[in-house]
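Thread: Modeling a multi-component assembly for a lab meeting

Hi all, long-time lurker, first post. My supervisor asked me to bring a structural picture of a complex we are working on to next week's group meeting, and I have zero experience with this. I have the sequence lines for every component (343 residues in total). Could someone generate the structure of the whole assembly? Inputs are pasted exactly as I received them:
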Amino acid sequence: MIIPKSNRLTDPQVAELTAIVSEFGCNLQPIIGAVRTIYAILGDERDDLMINRIEGLEYVDRVDRIQSGFKLMDRRSDLASHRVNIGGVTLGEELFIIAGQCTIDPKNSNYFYESAEAVKEAGGHVIRGGVWKPRTNPYSFQGDVKSLDILMEASRRTGLPVDAEVMDEEHLKMALDAGVHMLQIGARNALNYSLLRSIGKAIAATDTVVLLKRSIHMGPIDEFVAAAEYIVSFGNPNVLLCPRGTKPGLDGYRNHPDESITPLLKEKSWAPVVVDPSHSVGRAVYVPACSMAAIAYGADGLCIESHVEPAKGIGDDPKQALTPEALAQTIKQGKALWQLMRG
Ligand code: PEP
Ligand code: MN
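Re: Modeling a multi-component assembly
Sure thing. I ran the full set together rather than chain by chain. Output:
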């Protein structure tokens, strides 16, 4: 990874570096951070001759050679100073909240608009709403593209950014064309490397944020961080890691709550961690406790399912969505705990 002396290199300097690395069979990838751009050498960067030539250039400060399977996401990376901003919040500076319905019901858009207003009122920063849904049962409601308009209308009404899951390249294109601010990669696709690459490429030159959920069956922590590296390696470092419970579940909960992975992720990576307590436990009554546990373990934020009237919801909402009152209370208590933990 090349760290320049200035915040950004000029086009001729980039061209000169590109020419040098390509002589050694590598590519140069600018990674545009909030303050400055760093330049990843993609390929085998061990050649001392290549490194010496680069370090000899007067506009290069140094070359970091981190031996890591995820050299951009690694906490020793120069990207560790990058801060992800969305919804007027800088991750790490205050408790970050994504909330909203699991599934938008296209036949009852008013529920979504009211749920979105309730998220705003409770102090949420990003509204989530499922347009396309990964369902275990192929005959269950799979989502509806009409919900994309409802999602964007909720963003206009509240002035908040919105988050939706994309499961394939068609969804990706439609979501980006519509202006969705945050793309969720769900637990089922977290190891779909071709989708991760497509997303990385599609958002490379944008400030879109990705919420990468932990796969249901993901094993080692490195596997999770490396999945984020697939996206970031195309140039946009705005990725949030989202533990959401794994399988096999803890008897009584929907999944095995994995918020305790947070400090371990933070030992390895600089990426912000946003825990999803709703899918972890799968029952609204336990979501507040799981939220507090996540904050106690050092999470930077929460992604919570909430609905203005959970019983009238579809998808996961009847079982796991918080009411507006419970959401407001959870955010209030979460903020207080967050201050206590970090103060
Ligand atoms: C969801 O967020 O509604 C969802 C389906 O998430 P996951 O991929 O974590 O199951
Ligand atoms: Mn859900």
